[in-house]
Amino acid sequence: SVEKDVPVPSPTKVDLTCKLDENSNLKNPEVTWKKGSEIIPHISKTPNSWTIQLTISDKYHLGSYTCILKGEKEVSAVFHLQVPKIEGKEKPVITYEGDKAVMVCKTDYNAKTWTWHMTNGTELVPIVKILHADKFQIMSPSAGVSRLEILKLTKEDGGVYWCEAEFDLGTSKTRFELRVLSIAGPLKPFIAIVTEVVILVTAIVLYEVYSKRKQKGREKEFDQIEQL
């Protein structure tokens, strides 16, 4: 089985072709095109390829179209017609309190609009730039890119954010995880090391002071014995 994603941002006509390699052992197969249980007749046929033409006018025409070839064995190819995917960041965005976080969404196609959401429990709350101008900055340098900046980060800003692009045939979104660390966090190991060094140096100094006092005490005692 072979699968392929076919991005469709707006209404259009799409030709899907199922083609056998010339060296395939599957000879004169029975070919069926389907979407779910619905059979779709192919409009053209050659000895090794079969094509259907689709008119994608709304989101209900999107979905998975399967080409099934039956002979001595059965093989298939699946075409997933869907709105374009948008790229984000798989790994968490990690930054510190007081800094700013930057999240960028991209697509190879022109989106009609971009929307950013933050998660409040189980709900998605739209980020409205006008209402949160001192906290959020949203920029779209092109129709295929959207950028969110979160300013003056606090611990409460950590969480899950969503970027959503709207196309003529539907929407596509991706997830970001933001982690806000305390500035003191990375310093803890350093502080622990410094503390150990200070304790060690203090112990050495006290030992030297004690040793010197003890030595002076012995010298004084020796002088008194000599005088006697």
TrEMBL record:
<protein>
    <submittedName>
        <fullName>EMB protein</fullName>
    </submittedName>
</protein>
<keyword id="KW-1133">Transmembrane helix</keyword>
<keyword id="KW-0812">Transmembrane</keyword>
<keyword id="KW-0393">Immunoglobulin domain</keyword>
<feature type="domain" description="Ig-like">
    <location>
        <begin position="84"/>
        <end position="179"/>
    </location>
</feature>
<keyword id="KW-0472">Membrane</keyword>
<dbReference type="GO" id="GO:0030424">
    <property type="term" value="C:axon"/>
</dbReference>
<dbReference type="InterPro" id="IPR007110">
    <property type="entry name" value="Ig-like_dom"/>
</dbReference>
<dbReference type="Pfam" id="PF13927">
    <property type="entry name" value="Ig_3"/>
</dbReference>
<dbReference type="InterPro" id="IPR036179">
    <property type="entry name" value="Ig-like_dom_sf"/>
</dbReference>
<dbReference type="GO" id="GO:0098632">
    <property type="term" value="F:cell-cell adhesion mediator activity"/>
</dbReference>
<dbReference type="InterPro" id="IPR003599">
    <property type="entry name" value="Ig_sub"/>
</dbReference>
<dbReference type="GO" id="GO:0070593">
    <property type="term" value="P:dendrite self-avoidance"/>
</dbReference>
<dbReference type="GO" id="GO:0007156">
    <property type="term" value="P:homophilic cell adhesion via plasma membrane adhesion molecules"/>
</dbReference>
<feature type="domain" description="Ig-like">
    <location>
        <begin position="1"/>
        <end position="78"/>
    </location>
</feature>
<feature type="transmembrane region" description="Helical">
    <location>
        <begin position="190"/>
        <end position="210"/>
    </location>
</feature>
<dbReference type="InterPro" id="IPR013783">
    <property type="entry name" value="Ig-like_fold"/>
</dbReference>
<dbReference type="GO" id="GO:0007411">
    <property type="term" value="P:axon guidance"/>
</dbReference>
<dbReference type="GO" id="GO:0005886">
    <property type="term" value="C:plasma membrane"/>
</dbReference>
